[in-house]
Amino acid sequence: MTTETPQQSPATRTEVPGIQPGASGEAQLEVVGVDKTYQARRGEVHALSNVNLSIGRGEFISLVGRSGCGKTTLLRILAGLLPPTSGTVTADGQSIWRGGKRNDEAFEHFGLVFQDANLFPWYTVADNVSLPLKLRGMGKRARRARATELCELVGLPGFENAYPRELSGGMRQRAAIARALSYDPTILLMDEPFGALDALTRDKMNLELQSIHAQAGATVVFVTHSISEAVFLADRVVLLTPRPGRIRSITPVPLARPRSLETETSVEFQTIVRELRHELDEE
Amino acid sequence: MSDVTKARAKAPDTAPAKPAAAAKDPDAPVQDRDTLLKWLPFISSPILLLILIGGWQFAVSVIGVSEFILPAPLDVWRSLVDLLVGGDVWRDIGITLYEVLVGFAFALVIGTAVGAVLGRVIWLERAVQPALVALQVVPKVAFIPIFVIWFGFGTTSKIIMAGILAFFPIMLNVMLGVRSVDRGHRDVMRGLGASKWATFKSLELPSTLPYIFAGAEVGIVFAVIGAIVGEYLGGSEGLGHLVVRSLNALDAPQLFAVIVLLALMGSLLYAAVTLTKRLMIPWHDSVAGQSS
Ligand SMILES: Nc1ncnc2c1ncn2[C@@H]1O[C@H](COP(=O)(O)OP(=O)(O)OP(=O)(O)O)[C@@H](O)[C@H]1O
Ligand SMILES: [Mg+2]
Asked: Polar residues compositional bias: what residue ranges (chain A) (predicted)?
């Protein structure tokens, strides 16, 4: 099931055919030879080393690994918030960095969910959720309608006029997800979006995310600490190992879609989870 | 807590009734305490004032402090009424108010602008920091005689004094505010590819507003001090000068009456700034209360 990968031979190993149900085969996000070294006060931190990943259109990638192994770093590089020390990242064939500057055009269809909700305390939930639409020049009334729709979608009906400070951590996180979904992004980058949720809500959000992914055909890169969540959602699970962060393995998940909560009880599912957990333990 | 219920109440009818009802019951005692805390100052302040005036009257009539040192509260009250009815004092009030407001307005505009620039341009802040610190530690009221020489005994020298005193707290707060824009919030705007203008309007300005108001609350008090001290030392009109005139006439009740007027003016101006803050940043913790 698992494709063991020597870190030095990039690109080719991700080309595992016939196991990407959502993908059309064409790469939407390409990470080639990415290295990241932070210049911290205590010296240099080698956060990522020679990361290569090719993500197909409509593919769902889960990114797992121990705390501090560089998941957020990789996601921030993909989101164009952090320049890689070396290597290139392309979205739809466009390089996302142009001469050290972020190429904003390449990010038009990106939706980001951060590890923290990062809602603006001066906006109500509705205004937070529809902020991206405001920046895109959508009218007030249409924005409001869309915000109501999105609040419903993430399970926050009736909270449109509440301020973020009046919400719980999990509710804030759901509002942040609604914000990322507001403009129907075709590439969704999510950093532990469900970390603050209880198990039941989490299951519900997972199902919701799966159907959003299926309907919109969005490409998703999803960081999580939960291996079962990673397997449940993903077409491929990418395992990172720390110090420096590198891709240890890429595991395809050939389970049929749509997946339901019963999927988690299937033997195939549990085998994949067990293998991944084993691999994580080995380090 | 009370804010939550308020927000829910404003929400459309489609809001599920259950959470609202559930929120109400267990919170009821807390809500009672909150309302009590809210109204406590309105109860305690009159009591404190009564105690103060009672002690004052006691000192005068029972202990027998000389009237030239401490006039009786009633005399001060009479003097205050005379002043206000007599009419001349309104001109002085107007002049002092004018000096304070104009000085404060300049300080607000210039302080915000300078603070914003220094907050963003690190090298410039480094370059002028020693000069800023030097300016800050100098007792600025010492400059009043110089301003009087330069700008005369009129209102200009007092406006400048009020402005300078109010400038520093505002500028320093804005500088801090500009630097305190949350990194995660910046990521959100950058992730959305927001323009500089949009980032300013949706992120930088709102997140700096609480700092501007924190500076303004101190600034308005300092502006009053600046104007009055200016009038003490080199004035020909205004409430500060009225204090000096009362002193020269050895009219203790009037002296006290003017001080009461000054205290009232300062409080009202401060209240005006705080009220503006409440209206403009209702979302901020300093406004919405700490309990929730
Ligand atoms: N701004 C920074 N400056 C210096 N070092 C950093 C910075 N951000 C992250 N690092 C370092 O890079 C490494 C990877 O961090 P990263 O945040 O990507 O981990 P992560 O996998 O997301 O962890 P977690 O699961 O806990 O969120 C860590 O060792 C961290 O100390
Ligand atoms: Mg992280």
From this structure: 1-12
Q: How far away is chain A from the Cα of B82, in angstroms, using its nearest Cα? A: 48
Residue B211 has pLDDT above 50, yes or no: yes
- Give the Cα separation of B240 and B238 in Å (integer): 5
**Cβ within 8 Å, pair B198-A163:** no
Q: Enter the pTM of the model.
A: 0.77
**Boundaries of every domain in chain B:** 89-239+261-291
Question: How large is the C-alpha radius of gyration of chain A?
Answer: 19
Q: ipTM higher than 0.85?
A: no
Ligand that comes closest to the CA of residue A245: 1
pLDDT digits (tens, 9 = 90+) for B149-183: 888 888 888 999 999 999 999 999 999 999 989 99
Average pLDDT on B238-257 reads 89
Question: Is A137 at the interface with chain B, CB within 8 A?
Answer: no
Token pair belonging to A124? 């109500």
How do residues A28-60 score in pLDDT, each as one tens digit? Answer: 888 888 888 888 888 888 888 888 888 888 899
Output the CATH code of domain B89-239+261-291.
Answer: 1.10.3720.10
On the question of a cis peptide bond just before residue B73, with omega within 30 degrees of 0, the verdict is no
CA distances from B185 to A70, A176, A178, B21, B191 (A): 21, 12, 16, 34, 10
Distance B126 CA to ligand 2 centre (A): 34
Query: Are A122 and B15 in contact (CB < 8 Å)?
Result: no
CA of A191 from ligand 2 middle (Å) equals 7
From the list B108, B87, B223, the residue with the least C-alpha distance to B170 is B108
